[in-house]
Amino acid sequence: MPWVKWKKCLASKQEGGLGIGSILGLNIGLLFKWIWRFLNNPSDLWAQVIRYIYGLDRGIHTASSRSLKRTTWGSIIRSITTFKQKGINLISYCSRKIGNGASTRFWVDIWCGVQPLKVLFPRIFLLDLNKNCYVSDRIRSPDWSMFLRHNPRSGVEASQFTTLMSFIEGVGQIYRL
């Protein structure tokens, strides 16, 4: 039997290889697919079971390390964390379908754009009394004074607040929330 270098096996057929592809890349893709499904289908039974078993009610990174030890879901979470440490934030490529907004957190979840709103509007996020509120709570409310520690002051706070209110008005019209 003739021996073939592994690099040759991984090379595409156009490059004279066998076109096997990277097993590591395939594995990472499959792991990420489970994360994506977990984030985008929170009402699926399997996602509810995972959330209950590992205590993921407040997000994917909220489970205790003890509950994740030597489990399949734990290795999926660890792989995401490993990539983040290497500068690749796979979670930033996920966004949620907000539906009626009752299960999507306004500040923390990535539901519009590529970053959570707490990153886009950090000063307003700091003013908010309930940082784990839901999209439906915030978009339906015309008066934000009851949600904030104090009204936005001039400068950066006022600018961010004005931009956020314009953003919310647009989202409310699109989704009819």
Automatic annotation (TrEMBL):
Highest taxon, organism lineage: Eukaryota
Q: Which PANTHER family match?
A: OS04G0516500 PROTEIN, PROTEIN, PUTATIVE-RELATED
What protein does this entry describe? RNA-directed DNA polymerase, eukaryota, Reverse transcriptase zinc-binding domain protein
Which species expresses this protein natively?
Answer: Artemisia annua (Sweet wormwood)
